[in-house]
């Protein structure tokens, strides 16, 4: 991509920020977009963009191939988080889940051709959370697009959980328990989005959610008289935990997509 021969455009007073347009179109995360603009790798309607520039919503945005090469080197890791690890930074003496991402803990059945190196740990952050008492599929990524897809405010990616529970009442819980879990509960003064909830067996429920409030499933169960004895996330979008052993990880496959 050649540099503009005319003077650089000044940020316009109206329109949409170029970095926001890039994010909305799925071209890059906001951080990536700002970095690419600063590096001179973005053109808007044929002219090199500048930081803070605004443009028409239908503006033609062109990305230098060097930006794509940089983006392609960012890894996404799928980890089977065991109980006792926190998703984010270390707290109260508990280790973060990312500490499990080492060459020796890579799943031997990982079919990815990528080779592990310590630089892949730089900026590797969880895209979503699993509390310390929960296990299962945790996504760690360097790619802001993946994080936005999975935890952005408008995400519609499903998360599936298997939840072992105990009923506080006598006998078995009635059908109204499932109905309340599916639709009708309120947390933090806000209604929950509809959920798909069903019995897998007499003491295990299957939850499919499109949101992820703090300790949501545990709090939902508490509201209907159920105690959670165990919780495991088994799927995020179309990516499943499968046979990945606890404490081990693999790369997101080249052709795998969450949606």
Uncertain residue ranges? 1-12
Extended strand count = 16
Q: What is the highest CATH level, the class of the largest domain?
A: Alpha Beta
Helix run count? 6
CATH topology of the largest domain: Alpha-Beta Plaits
Q: Cα distance, first to last residue?
A: 32 Å
Biggest β-sheet description: 9 strands, mixed
Give the ordered list of helices and strands.
EHHEEEEHEEEHEHEEEEHEEE
How much helix is in the residues? Answer: 10-25%
Explain this structure.
- The protein is an alpha+beta fold and 259 residues long.
- The protein has 3 domains: 16-71, RNA-binding S4 domain (Structural Genomics Hypothetical 15.5 Kd Protein In mrcA-pckA Intergenic Region, Chain A, Roll); 73-155 and 239-251, 2-Layer Sandwich (Alpha-Beta Plaits), CATH 3.30.70; 159-236, 2-Layer Sandwich (Alpha-Beta Plaits), CATH 3.30.70.
- Helix content is 19%, strand content 26%.
- It has 6 helices and 16 strands.
- It has helices at residues 18-24, 30-38, 65-72, 144-151, 175-182, 216-223, and strands spanning 16-17, 42-44, 47-48, 54-55, 61-63, 76-81, 125-126, 135-141, 159-167, 186-187, 190-191, 196-201, 204-209, 226-236, 239-240, 249-251.
- Strands 6, 7, 8, 9, 12, 13, 14, 15 and 16 form a 9-stranded mixed β-sheet that branches.
- The longest helix has 9 residues, at 30-38.
- The radius of gyration is 22 Å and the shape is globular.
